[in-house]
Write a structure and sequence with these properties.
The chain is mainly α. The protein folds into two domains: 486 residues, Amino acid/polyamine transporter I, CATH 1.20.1740; 35 residues. The chain is 80% helix and 0% strand. It contains 20 helices and no strands. The longest helix is centred in the first third of the chain and has 39 residues. The termini are far apart.
Length: 530
Amino acid sequence: MKKLTPVFYISFFIALIFIVWGAFAPDNVDEVLGSIQSFISKQFGWFYLLSATAFVIFAIYLIFSPFGRIKLGKPDEKPEYGYFTWFAFLFTAGMGIGLVFWGVAEPLYHYYGPPSAEPQTNAAAAAALQYSFFHWGIHPWAIYAIVALSLAYFKFRHDAPGVVSASLRPLFGNRMDGPYGTAVDVIVVFATIFGVATSLGFGAAQVTGGLSFTFDFISNNIITQLIIIAIITVLYLFSAGTGLNRGIRILSMTNIVLAIGLMLFLLAVGPTVYVFDVFTTTLGSYIQNLPSMSFNTAAFSGDRAWLENWTIFYWAWWIAWSPFVGTFIARVSRGRTIREFMLGVIAVPTLFGALWFSVFGGTGISTNISMGGGLYEVMSNQGDEFALFTLLNEFPLSAFMVTLAILLIVSFFVTSADSATFVLGMQTTNGSLNPPVSVKMVWGAIQSSSAAVLLYFGGLGGLETAMIIAALPFTFIMLLMVISILKSLRSERSIIQSDKAVLQAERNKLREEKERLKKEKEELKKKVKK
């Protein structure tokens, strides 16, 4: 525990205050923090929309700019992980569990309450899937990519500590080693602790719902949920003790195999042609309407409440999660070029998410219509966590599919919690790439205890709101990160010019070789004619 920084102790103290507040005054937490969040959504919704879109534009710029050739590491370094493993890490850390939870539920919500179309119509179904693509597509992954790129660039190329405050040194210099840097890193840890704690609580509810749906002798109550949290805690603490290249890596590979297997199985037994039609049509409308959706503040329409409850909430949620996800993605992306990194982090998960929502969301809407609204009724009466299991129950081999879904959810939560302990360990030990097991165990215990206590006392909603509120200051930090990395990248113009010179020399050499071969070919033809 010798490597601990002040960030650890300050974050621990703040976490303790919020846990006690959420446990003994959950209604007060909801009221106070809910009012703050409502004020932020109404007054700063435009700021979230502009910032998220700015991150997308900056990410696209980096892909096509000369900076794209720069490596996240030394010039001769190779990627630490192969593509499949790397994508598995991205998918698991980014939003895998969210896709499982919301893959059926969110499109159904939008189908019955679209932003502008008439509910329960074909136009509503199209809007439902288009906005699901939007909320889980390019924007969130661009947000993650900006944080991850900043951390990976400064850590692996300039040997800076792997903490968020270190990425601001080009702007603020050594002041980031003092209170300002500590404040930045405390915000990161705060968002990570409560992001994962609330996810553990809600995840336990979904696993319990799946088990009670499958087995009559299992009750969907708080006791079962606490038992699930205890089991998941034991699993991820065991995994945390094995390190990144064993526990998290194996779990990530398992997650991606299970997720693809479940998706392909439903695609095969469900309305296959309809799903592919949905994917093709919605992908086109998503790309076509991306600019207008990105800048829509509902200034001239009556759907402002919908925008605040969904799009603005999601942008704040992704920004709040970005320190955790970004730190983990940065850790596993050493040796990639900036162009390769941006394309991999944004394009691949976006396409996978689009296919996922087409399969589960498209099938969900189609099945709900054939059931006369029965799927949405179950979801509304029993909880969002029952949407997936009710849908799977309508197809062949339902028991197998529900069991596979439960295993996938458990595996995702173990991996997410394990990854979070790794990130918290890094951020509270000055960016250590391999934080001590003891530190990870402490944060793992804090996460689970927070989830259990707050779930029991009903304070999870307030803490989720607290994490969303933390997104506002971190949005400013992210904008500073963009300016900081641009400033640092511009200082590498000599390297880029050198790369251009080498590339031009190689082109000239190839051109000369081509001319030589052409002359030899002509001379050979002359000899053959003679």
